Structure of Membrane-bound redox modulator Alx:
Amino acid sequence: MVDLLYLEWLGKPVWMWLGFHALVFTLLAFDLGILHRDKNHEIGVRESLLLTAFYFGLGLVFGGWIWWYMGAQPAQEYVTGLVVEKSLSMDNVFVIAVILTSLGIPRAAQHRVLVWGILAAVVLRGLMIGLGAALVHQAHWVLSIFAAFLLYAGVKMLVSRDEEEGDVQDNAAVRWLRRTFRVTPGLHGQRFAVRLPHPKTGKPVLWLTPLALALVLVNGADVIFAVDSVPAIFAITTDTFVVYTSNIFAILGLRALYFALAAMVDRFAYLKTALALILIFIGTKIVVADTFELVHVPAWVSLAVTLVFLAAGISYSLWRTRGETAEEAPPVEREAHRA
């Protein structure tokens, strides 16, 4: 049995994978089973910031363990990946805020959508990272494709102008769900589905609630963002363990990050510019360092550049929007304040 724990799987001993997942499940159980046993508890901004700091700090502690056990290079790559993934997840938070407010999900019920969304995200990211690792290790040139995609995504994000968000109710997935399933007009507590009488036969049948629609859209948004984030982390390192652990730690704090930032959507107007520059930098790094081998870019340089872009984007955003209040903000933000 002991020998099995030291067998390698995806480049690392089995015990490392089992230990990490045990840590993740413990954190989820602590978060869901202890911190938030009260389903009607509304998470405030202060509590959200504390939880965000806790999860990010724990991620850094794990990075310290990687430094001790695996060395400085993997640790620097892990921290860079963690920062990049956390940065991209901030953009994801703003999209989730639009989804939940557009569907009229009250703040007390939003955490349930986010809980199941995070659990689904952990599974989906694992599958996507596994696929990405298989592609990269089978054909190293796949990194060049990732680089091209990151450059395209970064430039597109940089030059695209902010437009009014479309009505979530007109989303293709929402329309399909409403055509395919019976959907209640309003919420039924915090349930995703309920049994109600059929309008014609009167027999009890299964109905979805708007909470279920929100969950589908939130998971869809995460898949879309994963298309950016997974190539980005593989551009930083091809160590599957580092890729996976940095991704999961970034996801674990997503729920707390949401409640901290949902009411401040417009305060981060220039965050997208910073994220675009980060993607462009990472894509360029692959081209010059891996594809053409023109220059070696140390992991600490990637981390430093990422932190500088992120800090500059956040700081400039907060400076430009200083003094703004919820009443001065667009409707989506005002809804987030009232939720």
